[in-house]
Amino acid sequence: MREEVDKIAAYLGSEIDPHGLPEGHYRTSIRFGPVEYCAVAVLTKGRARYSADISYAGCVIPDNTHE
């Protein structure tokens, strides 16, 4: 997936956005005024984190007594 995003970045003359890497998103984008073209690869790390987060959906009730 990174290779494909790298190819798009080379074609567009854009850089890889380092801000998404810790979250597992490998992306590049370019703006044309109010329009943005973006290519994103959600890496294994990001997909695993998302799957883990949603696996508790409906099963865990937050304890709000500490407010």
Protein model, in words:
The protein has 2 helices and 3 strands; from the N terminus they run H-E-E-E-H. It is α+β, with helices and mostly antiparallel strands and 67 residues long. It has a domain of 41 residues. A 3-stranded antiparallel sheet has the order 1-2-3. A hairpin with a 2-residue loop joins strand 2 and strand 3.
Label this structure with key terms.
67 residues; alpha+beta; three-stranded antiparallel beta sheet; 2 helices; 3 strands
Bin the helical content. Answer: 25-40%
Strand element count: 3
Dominant shape: elongated
**How is the largest sheet built, in terms of strand order?**
1-2-3
Radius of gyration: 17 Å
Total helices: the number is: 2
The biggest sheet amounts to: 3 strands, antiparallel
Structural class: alpha+beta
The ordered string of helix (H) and strand (E) elements is: HEEEH
Estimate what percentage of residues fall within beta strands: 25-35%
Uncertain runs: none
What is the first-to-last residue Cα distance?
Answer: 43 Å
